[in-house]
Amino acid sequence: MATKKIKTPTKSDIIARYTDYCLMNGSRPATVYKFAKDNGFEEADFYAFFNSFETLEHHYFTEMFTYTLEMLQQSPNYAEYGGTQKLSAFYFTFFELATANRSFIMYLMDNDNSSLRSLLKMKELRKVFTAYAAEVLDKPFEMQNERADKAQSNALREAAWLQFLSVFKFWMKDTSPGFEKTDIFIEKSVKASSDLVYNTPLQSLFDLGKFLWKEKFTA
Fold first, then answer.
1. How many CA atoms within 13 Å lie on the side-chain side of 127?
2. 93/5 Cα distance (integer angstroms)
3. Which of 22, 55, 97, 175 is most solvent-facing, going by the fewest CB within 10 Å?
4. What is the count of structural domains for the chain?
5. Which pLDDT score is estimated for 150?
């Protein structure tokens, strides 16, 4: 079936056509010019949103982030959640969306055969996600010193990003039906990190460690 042409594409149109092309062909289009012509729009329409295919790939994850927040904000309960509840809800929603787009995400992360280059594709996501984490997470201590307070905020952001990456890596390797083990990992990971920062950590850290040991050595 011939591809339906689009004269004035939106950002979402271009991303959808690009993901479809990559999954059908196993590689990027040869040029932006050919990609645009094959889809019935002008090369300039592509450059109105992205300056290269690589930039589009970087922003694919920020589009997922934006859509995740839009979905969360439609829930009447979300605004009432505490910081760790919001972060947990974000993870569940983001990875549900990721599962719906798993083929393209796996393509993006595997295509370079380099962990570093794959992570670079998430650099724009890192910016928006760490800003989000800093906004929703409560600081464990009230700091009078400005430098100390800034250091605490930076530590929270970076810890949240490392946690996100750990969930992302777990999800990529998850082979359970419906990715149910990722849901368990999210629950235990958020609980353990919350206890580590705000409460007594031993039991939840033990539970997380036991879960990871079981996944690694008994799966």
1. 9
2. 32
3. 175
4. 2
5. 56
Rg (CA), the chain: 20
Residue 4 resides in a domain: no
Neighbours of 133 (CB within 10 A): 22
Whole-number Å distance between alpha carbons of 186 and 84: 11
Identify residue 138 by its one-letter amino acid code: D
Q: What is the pTM of this model?
A: 0.82
Rounded to 5 degrees, what angle do the CA atoms 106, 162, 205 make? 110
Q: Are 39 and 6 in contact (CB under 8 A)?
A: yes
For 165, the domain range is 59-217
User: How many residues can be counted in the chain?
Assistant: 219
Q: Provide the pLDDT for residue 141.
A: 41
Q: Tokens 């689009």 — which residue?
A: 6
3-class secondary-structure state, position 66: helix
